C-alpha cells in the first residue's frame, strides 16, 4: 500500500502556514472570545492589503429587530444617484469574531472593481448574542437596504447578499428567508467558503482538520459559542443545506478552497443548487486555504482568486439586471 498522497499547496500558502506554525502561543480555540477577536485583528494588520482609495466610505446605523442599532459601513465607488444594486456583505469569523475594520480592504476592493455600492454589516456576535441573533440582524439589514433608504445615496434596484465562512452561512440563510419578500429583489448571492452544515465531521472536515489555518477544533469552538445549549443545529438558519428545497433561489456564486475544512460544505450546497435548477457558478481555488480573500498581502495569489470571483459575480448581476 503506497504512502498517502499529500494535497497540493501553493507556494505562497505554504510560506504563510510555515510562518504561523512557528509562532508560539495558544491556538484560537484555547482563548476566550475577546482574545480571539484581538488575534484576528492582528492577523489582518499584517496579512491583508491596504484599503486604497474610494469615492466614499461612511458609517451607517441600521434599525435592529429588537430596538437595537446595527452598525454598518457603506462603500461607494462613485457618488452618482443613478439607481443601482447594492451588495450586502456579512463578514466571517465563526459568528464570534470579525468586524467592519478587518473587512474594510475587501469591501473597498469589491466596490472599486465592480463599481457597486457595498454595505458591510456588523451583526451581533456570540457568545454575548447567540443564535439566531446574527441571522436576525442580517435579515433586518437586507430589508433596510432593499427599502432604498436615503443614507445609501441612490435608489436600490436589487440586493446581493454576500459573505465569507460564517458570513456565507448568513448570506445563504438571508436568501432562503427573504427571497421574493424584499422591497427590491435579490439579484444574486455570493457564498465564499460558506458554512452550510453544522453537523459535518467527515470528508474535508477530517482531511484538513489541522494545519491549514481553520481547524476542525476551531469550528467546534465557534459552533459551541454560537449555538445555545440544546439548540437545533439542523435548523436551516444554522445549516442551510437542510432547506427542504433550494428551487427558486437567486443566481449563486459559490467559492471554495481546496485545503479548507469547509470545502465539502460549499461543494454540497452548490450541487444542491444546481440540482434544484438554480443558475449557479461554482469556483474552487486549488491549493488555497480558508480565509484567503482577507489574507491577500500574505497570500498574493488570493488577489487573483478574488478577482476571478468578481468577474463571475459581474456576470450574474448583469444577467439579472
TrEMBL record:
Protein name (database record): Acetylhydrolase
Lineage: Bacteria, Pseudomonadati, Pseudomonadota, Alphaproteobacteria, Sphingomonadales
Organism for this UniProt entry: Sandarakinorhabdus glacialis
Pfam family, one: Abhydrolase_3
A GO MF label: hydrolase activity
Keywords carried by this UniProt record: Hydrolase
Segments forming domain Alpha/beta hydrolase fold-3: 87-293
InterPro entries attached to this UniProt entry: AB_hydrolase_3, AB_hydrolase_fold, GDXG_lipolytic_enzyme
SUPFAM superfamilies, per database record: alpha/beta-Hydrolases
Matching PANTHER family: AB HYDROLASE SUPERFAMILY PROTEIN C4A8.06C, ALPHA_BETA HYDROLASE FOLD-3 DOMAIN-CONTAINING PROTEIN-RELATED
